[in-house]
Design brief:
Helix content is 40%, strand content 26%. With 266 residues, the protein is α/β, with parallel strands linked by helices. It folds into two domains: 143 residues, Periplasmic binding protein-like II (D-Maltodextrin-Binding Protein, domain 2), CATH 3.40.190; 92 residues, 3-Layer(aba) Sandwich (D-Maltodextrin-Binding Protein, domain 2), CATH 3.40.190. A hairpin with a 2-residue loop joins β2 and β3. It is elongated, with a radius of gyration of 22 Å. The relative contact order is 0.18.
Length: 266
């Protein structure tokens, strides 16, 4: 009898611990079904953008990781992070059903398969060139014979693909490989996120980053098209995270306080 009683108490205790460790959801059931259909919120993390994600020996950190964890807390679900080294790979992965939410720049090509919120951060896309390069302005770069290194499928790759009239894009698998290719292949310019370019140029006095920008990159949360209840919830969630100071505080903790929190969506 005592063994049976003890087993019952242990079972009840385990159930209580599980209930405490798994927070109650504040989201409607249809939202949870959309955003965590497997029972786990599967979040795609683009480690190719240093403003949004930072990596070290302990894993990934940054505003996108903070937002993903807060969303999982509100849904009352476990979270699984899948880290990609380039935004283009995140977009490709949606076709295989690998993730439920992602953090990507809003782009027309991506919007064909992903539903986006309003942006939560706005960052600049610009060029890095050799210090003695004759290219001085953004307009100088779009000329015949000019070759530009880009990370394949990045927001700036997609933008420049549809806007450049004369220059040629040379694509590499990820932003770091793009910088390596820019130097090794003796290209004329490298396109990228300003903060990443600035950090690289600090280690290379023979490089400079243009003060102008060719693009405002609007970073947003997304979910595969067709998950309408989930997308509406994400839109409200993003606006709350901006208004509450959550996004700004997360960026500051990550040393990215110069990134601009997007204004409220009207």
């Amino acid at each position: 009898m005592y063994k049976t009683f003890a087993a019952t108490m242990i079972s009840m205790l385990i159930g209580t611990i599980a209930a405490v460790s798994q927070p109650a959801s504040t989201a409607p059931p249809e939202v949870i079904k959309d955003l965590a259909p497997t029972g786990t919120l599967r979040a795609a993390i683009n480690a190719g953008n240093v403003v949004l994600v930072q990596k070290d020996a302990s894993g990934v950190h940054g505003v996108t990781v903070d937002l993903a964890n807060e969303l999982a807390r509100r849904l009352g679900t476990p979270i699984a992070l899948t880290v990609y080294d380039a935004a283009g790979k995140v977009t490709d992965a949606v076709k295989n059903g690998e993730w439920d939410i992602a953090f990507l720049a809003i782009e027309p090509v991506r919007a064909a398969v992903i539903g986006f919120t309003a942006p939560y951060v706005i960052i600049e896309g610009t060029y890095m060139v050799a210090a003695d390069s004759p290219l001085k302005t953004i307009a100088d770069v779009d000329r015949d014979g000019i070759r530009i290194a880009v990370a394949k499928g990045s927001a700036y790759d997609l933008y420049l693909t549809r806007t450049l009239q004369h220059a040629t894009l040379v694509r590499y698998p990820s932003p770091p490989l793009g910088f390596e290719g820019f130097i090794a292949d003796k290209l004329d310019a490298a396109a990228g996120v300003r903060q990443f370019l600035n950090a690289f140029a600090k280690t290379r006095p023979d490089m400079r980053v243009m003060p102008e920008h060719f693009q405002e990159i609007r970073e947003a949360m997304g979910t595969p098209l067709g998950r309408n209840a989930g997308l509406q919830y994400l839109k409200t969630f993003v606006e709350e995270m901006k208004a509450s100071g959550f996004v700004a505080e997360s960026l500051a903790r990550a040393g990215q306080a110069d990134a601009v929190v997007a204004p409220a969506e009207k």
